[in-house]
Each structure stands twice: as structure tokens, then as C-alpha cells.
Amino acid sequence: MTILYLNLFLSFMKIGFLSFGGMTMIPIINEEVLKFGWMTTEEVLDIVAIAEMTPGSLGINCATFVGLRSGGIPGALCATLGTMMPSLTLCLMAAHFIHKFQNNMTLNTLLKGIRPICLGMLMATAITMGQSVFWEHSSICWNLVIISLITGYCLFKRKFSIPHTILLAAFLGILMG
């Protein structure tokens, strides 16, 4: 049984290192799962469909479901940790070097230069998403603009918590159609 857990961990670690997340993981997951005989092609398709519907990352959800199906809860833990290992490793290395060189002027200057880039990327994403949310069939969806303004006001000025803001937005969505 420990061989199964080791294979789950190593296979999903390989998947984490060789893919870029999201849909790029599916062919590698399919290949690994079929190679070890953990599931059939139809079962892999079902797992991917379920993983897409559930909250969280596709890769972690698939790993958890495959591990659970193949080796129970210990299998799910092994597969999930394997998938997370590349990200955890890179984040820990980055944190180590940032902490080690926190007083380095070059690193501080570099990080100050990266901040506006990150903000710009977030703004570009917000604008792109805003266009797809608020613009439909060559007209503005005013009800969604109003919901956005009300929830934004409640979030930033009234200091609503995120869950309360989401509930408010859902209520306004039902109310305003």
C-alpha cells in the first residue's frame, strides 16, 4: 500500500512540475492515471468534470479525487501534496531569498518596480472582466453596474466583510434580476 501512496505522490508531483495549471494538466493526469491503472478513461473524464464544478484549483481537485478513489484519504493526501509540492518549493525558496536579502538595495528596488506592474495587471484583469460582465449585446447592463457600485461602497466605505458583501450581491442580483 505504501508503494501506491509513493506513486500517487510522485505522479502528481510530476504533473505539478510539468504543467502550467488548469487545463494543461488534464493530458498529463490522464496519462499518469491510465499508466498506473488507477482509473479508466471514462472515470478520468468524470473526475475532470467534477473537479471543474467544485471550488478550487483543477489540479488539486483532480489529485484529491484520484487519490481518494485509488487509496482512500491517505491517497488523497499524498496526491494533493504531490501536486502542491512544486508551488510550495518555489514559494519557500522565494521567501528564503527575499528574507535573506531583505536589506539588499538592488532587491528592494526590483520589488518596488514589480509592484506597479502587479497593480497594472490587476487593473487590466478588472477592466477585461468588467467589460465581459457589464457589457452585453452592445449595451450596458445597468443593474449589474448598480450592484457593483453598491457592493463596492459597502465593502470599502462601510467595511462589510467579504461573505456579507457576497450575500448582499446575491440578494441584489435576485432583487434586480
From TrEMBL:
Keyword match DNA damage: no
Bilayer topology term: Multi-pass membrane protein
Main location: membrane
Compartments where located: Cell membrane
Signal peptide: none
Transmembrane segments: 7-29, 73-95, 116-134, 140-156
Keyword terms: Cell membrane, Membrane, Transmembrane, Transmembrane helix
Keyword Magnesium annotated: no
Record family assignment: Belongs to the chromate ion transporter (CHR) (TC 2.A.51) family.
Record-given protein name: Chromate transporter
Native organism: Enterocloster hominis
